[in-house]
Amino acid sequence: GVDCSKCARNTRAAMAPPNPVWSSAMHTTQNVADRKDNPVKSWRPPAGQISSQWRQTNLWSVSSIQSDLQQRLAYEFDRPSGSEKLLPGRTFIHAQERKFDDMHDRPTTPAGMNQIMRERDANGHGQPTNLDPAYSYALYHRDGPHPNSLHDPSHHGGENDSLSSRKVAIPDASTGVDAGFKLDSHHTAILRDDPSSLSVGLPSNFASSNGPKDHIRIAPSQQQTQMASSSLQKQFYSHSVSGYNEFQAQLRNGRPRMDAKARSQLLPRYWPRITDQELQHLSGEYPTSNSVITPLFEKMLSASDAGRIGRLVLPKKCAEAYFPPISQPEGLPLKVQDASGKEWIFQFRFWPNNNSRMYVLEGVTPCIQSMQLQAGDTVTFSRTDPEGKLIMGFRKATNLSSEQEETTKPVNGAPISSEANGKVSAPDSSPNAVVSRQNKVNTESKSSSPVEQATASKVDTGGLAQKEGPGTGQSSPGPVKRKATSVSQKIKRLRMDNEESMELKITWEEAQELLRPPPKAPSIVVVDGHEFEEYEEPPILGRKTYFVTDQSGSSCGPAQEISMEELAELIPIKAGLGGTKKSKTRIEADTIDASDGLDTLANLAILGEGEALPSQPTTRHPRHRPGCSCIVCIQPPSGKGPKHKQTCTCNVCMTVRRRFRTLMLRREKRQPKDTDSPRKKEPGQASEMLSQTVSGPLAASASATSSPQKANVNADGTEDMAVDHKTTSSPVKNHIDLNIQPERDDEQSPKSDAAGAARLLRDNPT
DNA sequence: GCTTCGCATGGAA
DNA sequence: GTTCCATGCGAAG
């Protein structure tokens, strides 16, 4: 049964954020014993409103390292700072203690729950009424019983009759396990708004119509239920309905999700300012579970935090409030999970310092590096319930979002830089998007074994560059001292980091410009009247692609080619034309691929057959639209497949002919001079070649664009080469067979392809 | 000579 | 004046 009077009596303490003084006399004896056994030499419990005397629950009893770790991970994050410390081995806590903590700390949404309320009255006394024993255990103990502990009678201690009697398993229909504390995805998910003032979900019959004054009892409309059921829509409920809206705004703006009490305990700089997106990102690891994430605190990394020492100084109050109590300077291992689901094990410890403590997390370097954090970035610590896992998020200082900036904190707001994790976090708030991301997160990495961690640490230490950049904000440049080699190494690392950062700092639009469709022709999918190219293969990273609106909307051809003047106008302009691919012809700023190929041919023609160029651009240019009939598109390197007709008058063919004639003429002129061996082209020649190569097709296309009917094609398709003969004075009198079968089909590489084409051009001047 | 560890120091809040 | 904490710094490995 539940003793409501005790509940009410202890509610104040239970609600005191974040580390209320637990002055109940019930722990006095234990406290004395604990103090006696406290081996800490130079530390005395600091006085003040935040007591450093910990009431340690059974969660911290240890029998093995692993169990110790697991249990400690289920630390109480709002544990009342009772005047005691539990001796190791204590396996029980008082029933009232558990009960009242449960009442106010643990969000609970058992199946069937359809109301959310905050058990709290104006005096801070909860007055739970109509307690249904069947749901009594749905009220979490604020000491953070780990699910394992929750369900493991041994952890609760059979000696505690009260506790045992209150342990009511609420089977989850879907899992068949005790899930009374779990959120039912079909009902309500609650994300606590702050570590100390917690939303408590109660079954409908739990709520009292005459309950505390500031109860929040939200009728479970279908809409609300659906909203809450989504991990995307995890709702924060505040003290009032208006407060709810306020918190909604806070979430969006990354403002601290704490109430006044909690704020009063922590310095503002440590208030968690996790945004919705960050929370969603963090919750990505738990897409299906009913976990809720409670932001605990955050800290901007100092230079020393992000340095190679691997020690992250924790704010004392935060460490004492949210991390497990430690009595030994050696501390204990703390398992922290990052947003990608990867688990890290840090050593949570402290140093005696001026009659106080200085808390640090040791071994954070691999994690910091994996997150690519540096001084000025912010790490956030959250906790999931009911798992009790520590979640470590981060916020890059460079991802400033102006609308989310806080005066108290220069770095804030932007969603967790997923790019740092290699994940794309589009600002899409649709559930599907998040589900997709979450699934991705789940499938990405879940390395959790310590061994793996150690391995990862080694790899990270050795393989990743240290981040010791000056950062922003309060970060300071690395100390210019000690060894010059160390400084130079740091400078090198910094330069590397900066270079990497520069490369990564591109906008989405800029990234789009660098993407080229894969060679395989896409299928066109029409969605809402818009055509989309659907590629089976990933895009290719390349140089910028510029888009030119095409009047006709057809595929590339002479009429669609862009003039040099047009291109010259386009190139300096940011390519903002690429919004939709429909009816656009893409032309690359680095010239058409065909020109690349032609340039290759030209070079090969000069150098002679078989002399390869250092790097040959491909003649396959996937930028051509589906249906493109140019030679590059329709003729594969092997020579198989559709071929251009001999009389083809497409721009490429025309250019190839023209270029070939020019090259052959040049070669003839050169051969009398140096007939011994082919030589490398000279710089001047190279530029000239490039100029011709670029101008050739473009110039041709310019005229073709302006007057497509100028193509000198006879009625039978035979091209009138008079123009070319005039302009080139080429000795080549006859047509070039562009479609001749290569000698070897195995020459399929771009290089060999180009060589083969050149050979074709040379050997088949007819 | 370098790194790590543990503590001390001193500026800032 | 007190406390916190970023970082310095010497000892040890």
Number of DSSP helical runs: 26
How much is the average pLDDT?
47
State the assembly state of the protein chains.
Answer: single chain
Shape: elongated
Low-confidence stretches: 1-256, 400-505, 544-625, 633-642, 674-766
Task: Summarize this structure briefly.
Helix content is 34%, strand content 11%. It contains 26 helices and 17 strands. The strands form six sheets. Strands 5-10-11-7-8-9-6 form a seven-stranded mixed beta sheet. A two-stranded parallel ribbon has the order 1-2. A two-stranded antiparallel sheet has the order 3-4.
Description of the molecule:
- The chain has 766 residues and is of the alpha+beta class.
- The protein has 26 helices and 17 strands.
- Helix 23 (651-670) runs antiparallel to helix 24 (683-706).
- The protein is elongated and about 110 Å long.
- The model is unreliable at 1-256, 400-505, 544-625, 633-642 and 674-766 (pLDDT under 50).
- It binds a DNA duplex (13 and 13 nucleotides) through residues 46, 48, 267, 302-305, 307-311, 313, 315-317, 329, 351-356, 358, 362, 474, 476, 479, 481, 483, 485-486.
